[in-house]
Amino acid sequence: MSLSFKHLTSTKQLTRDDTDAILKVSQDMETLLEKKGGDNRLQGKVLASLFYEPSTRTRLSFETAMLRLGGEVVTADGFQFSSLYKGETIEDTIMVVGQYADIICMRHPEGGSADKAASVSPVPFINAGDGPKQHPTQAILDLYTIQKEIGHIDNLHITMVGDLRYGRTVHSLSFLLGLYENVTFTLVSPAELTMPEKVTDFFKEKGISYTESEEMEKALDADIVYMTRVQKERFADQSEYDRLKLKYILTPKHLEGKNCTIMHPLPRVGEIDPAVDSNPRAAYFREVRNGMITRMALLSMLLQAA
Amino acid sequence: MSLSFKHLTSTKQLTRDDTDAILKVSQDMETLLEKKGGDNRLQGKVLASLFYEPSTRTRLSFETAMLRLGGEVVTADGFQFSSLYKGETIEDTIMVVGQYADIICMRHPEGGSADKAASVSPVPFINAGDGPKQHPTQAILDLYTIQKEIGHIDNLHITMVGDLRYGRTVHSLSFLLGLYENVTFTLVSPAELTMPEKVTDFFKEKGISYTESEEMEKALDADIVYMTRVQKERFADQSEYDRLKLKYILTPKHLEGKNCTIMHPLPRVGEIDPAVDSNPRAAYFREVRNGMITRMALLSMLLQAA
Amino acid sequence: MSLSFKHLTSTKQLTRDDTDAILKVSQDMETLLEKKGGDNRLQGKVLASLFYEPSTRTRLSFETAMLRLGGEVVTADGFQFSSLYKGETIEDTIMVVGQYADIICMRHPEGGSADKAASVSPVPFINAGDGPKQHPTQAILDLYTIQKEIGHIDNLHITMVGDLRYGRTVHSLSFLLGLYENVTFTLVSPAELTMPEKVTDFFKEKGISYTESEEMEKALDADIVYMTRVQKERFADQSEYDRLKLKYILTPKHLEGKNCTIMHPLPRVGEIDPAVDSNPRAAYFREVRNGMITRMALLSMLLQAA
Fold first, then answer.
1. Is pTM beyond 0.90 here?
2. Residue B31 gets which letter from DSSP?
3. CA B92 to CA B90: how far, in whole Å?
4. Chain B residues contacting C, CB < 8 Å?
5. What is the CATH number of the domain that holds C120?
6. How many angstroms separate the CA atoms of B187 and A145, rounded?
7. CB < 8 Å to C68, chain A
8. Does a structural domain hold residue C1?
9. Number of CB pairs < 8 Å for B and C?
10. In the 8-state DSSP scheme, what is residue B254?
11. N or C: which end of chain C has fewer CB within 10 A?
């Protein structure tokens, strides 16, 4: 199956045909993974995994995805970026690494770095997060998780909780859900951390129904409750943080009589009581596995091996 | 061959049946290594090698062991632990990494971290050193080295030299040798660095014969002389360190007319004169190779491929 | 094909027979790479890639070279060198790593470290740069690039531009070109950064023709123009640097009506205007790919698989 693009830098590139194809291939990958652990379709191919800022979770997910399809991996990580210190441009680094590798994924702290990289890359390029801007593979794994957990994405009701202002993840997912029919959003956040206009304007433009609230407890009658971290450093007034933080800690008590599936991009730092983990609708560790599965799909599709 | 455990966190878990099986499989691995360099029995399996503190030697030993059996490796190392900085618990990290990998080894500076990890790991877990507590694979490679060098472990006479108080290695090995018949210990250390009661109490309880001494030279009539680093920073009185350090530097002169095999967990920083290296009974570099061999055995046994 | 050495620490070891063989095998590797991406001739072999100082470019080049021939790689990089901090000698580190791996490459900041390593290594050893001294695989990839781009190395006219005093790369390449017939050099640099006597004495001794100049523009009628970085920190007088730096920035205008091929060891930090990149004789990114190709050749020759 083929995609409408050679490089993946943003969820905005994705058409409904693209997401349909990715979800289909991901399902095949999940079956392959559970039956045989992987195969050798990417034998002889090398992924360059470039992480200008550390993100162990995302990096290991890409790397294990590549290895499980028989490919190989080279890694450059954080402090190892000597050429960065020598003042090389991102474009030159990518033109060099593209001589060695068959495909590149990159995490970089600077917004827009992914577009720079894709503009020159001689091989397929995947954005693994460029600062505050985009992290498209996170949105794709969330989409696959919703499909698996709920059985449909059209007609979904999703509640997003926490820091909706700075959370790159919820923005990317919101845009991606805009490709589907009749999705409704409940947006729960402190007043300081409401969803930014770039997203709510998008909702209005597409005629997507959404409501905003500060109360998590009243918003749990949804198909999905998507939790995120609220970071202390976002608050000018620490007492305001102290007042709010308890409102956004999900416990088993909240879930009594509820039927919602719980997602979280992880890492969590207290927003979900570990006692919730044993709830069969706590999907966040399955979500992690879906990250590897959807990256297996993307790597094989971009390398024409799906 | 099978083991009595799924996760290896401590030598205390090991039964005599376990060590018998591990030594047997290690011998098979050594034969395989010398004949063919390895095989493909772990093809499709991925080891996650998590080192929260650096230990290049141990990490490369695990990773080459995995690769030589056809497996694959992903690594997270030191400064790369972003999620640690974001406040994620060890348990969450292991539950995440266990979604990606088929087996995990972890080095962590905190005592007890290995037990926390093993308590939640969805895949086999191996402790590669948890702070001051345990480093079971070091003890296993030492055991295999003794078997290879001396031909037997029952009826062994072993002299341990140096920092016996803080040396995790000599404690783990002492407990492990307690599984064997009629092993006798000579314990040579400065008064500040004698073997702790947790070990000598174990000797008394098991009826194991041991003697303590400050004199290395008189203790070299043993099957094994196991040297360790004495660290300057252990001494309140530096002149005491200066007086002692020369007593514990093994030179070719010490070994004249002796028949003992020399072991050392490495790295050494002066305790063994490099002129000793050419002595055929200097076993410490063979010990290093035995580390890879015994880890090949453990990885394949825990992954049901031995 | 075989080489006159087991370990490669310096270009001074290389005979004309060696370079002939390496260029021949490199050509085979390039054909293999373009046709099939690689093969499995190094299956079961493990490269230890030891970088005591970061050099992402060189490290990824060695590692992808190994992986493309079916070999495996373990990496130790920068901050991860725990044993270094514990005071272990280079010799001990190499004797340990040589128990795990089948071949070792090492970058180290200390001149002479490569010779120390090679003197004890139980497996083939390749110097990937030892401080100010040698970086032989860079010179080999440059040689292969010249052969590919120009079609011959005998009778070459090469212009070297920039920091000729401290540039390890131009020294190594100069010595290596001394193996060939009738090579002539034009050496363009600021007065502060002229070619050192160790190289010009070598030219005189071998009867090699060279001229020195401060003017880049008049020196572009050569087969090869080899550009290098001029580092600001080399100048006591910053106004002198400001005066000179513009003289050594190559732009499309300089190349009008010229027929020279442009090389650069990279990274560049302004010496070559990116507008030059589209010139078909801009060879510096092909040079990068040739780095992987020549390292595929060297790894397979040193492991007796060429």
1. yes
2. H
3. 6
4. 36-38, 51, 53-57, 59-61, 63-64, 67-68, 73, 75, 77-79, 266-269, 274, 285, 288-289, 291-292
5. 3.40.50.1370
6. 59
7. 44, 46
8. no
9. 73
10. G
11. N
